[in-house]
């Protein structure tokens, strides 16, 4: 089979590998759709240390069942599935608390040294599979992963009905957050980003107001759009110092900031902005296995405008060029999908 191997910063190679053999309670999958995450681009560039060569990237994926291994009984050949990519042990302290995303023994497909979905086939534990909803194509199914990241963050915010919500960052995750927030009937949704192109996308997905901090005073704009009430809940999906500070300063007394982004490991924060105004900062990391299943149901309900996120679909052979372009021209894309069954845009 073909697999796209990360061989070091800026290096991707298509290699021939042995077809994986499913072990006990695993399922052999034919990979049908894999999204390129921003973390994949950063890993490809060698910026994070979260991709260790040689390995196969890809953690947003949907697939077709080829063959169940011994003891795998829930799915049969031809079934369409979505993969929850965090392989959790189920027995550690965190798993027993339901925090499978924080499993002490977790292995994340497509991260560090664990091979992922930028390949033609993969063997995956059956417990990580969810049935792809009827009338939902593979590419939409692969979007369950970024939607789950967004869903986990919004869920931590609690009831947002009637609240003023600020989303900082209008990339793929920010736009997923926007859609899930809208389902809660909030007061006003404001989206902030440095890109006018991405802010236009946020408008198209239903943002009430948008702010580009390059063009106007940030705090004055927030005050104007909320009639001076400021923000009840901010959700930060960038992970840099300026955005993190903005997510706190915009809050009303007692407001909360949910942090999803983590691009910058260390930053300077004014603690008095938090403590003296009784504000809360909550970190959100990925999603639990249960939350992922809830997102699969949400996708099946048709309440999300998922198809609008996909900019284009490419072959494995085109991924390196796409990675370079995503780095150089990020505003041109929301989500790029890989279909391992096609070559240079021609479906089999």
Automatic annotation (TrEMBL):
GO MF terms, alphabetically ordered: L-iditol 2-dehydrogenase (NAD+) activity; metal ion binding
This protein's UniProt keywords: Metal-binding, Oxidoreductase, Zinc
Membrane-crossing segments per the record: none
Domain Enoyl reductase (ER): 8-338
SMART domains, A to Z: PKS_ER (SM00829)
Keyword Transport included in the entry's annotation: no
Enzyme Commission (EC) number: 1.1.1.14
UniProt name for this protein: Sorbitol dehydrogenase
Native organism taxonomy: Bacteria, Bacillati, Bacillota, Clostridia, Lachnospirales
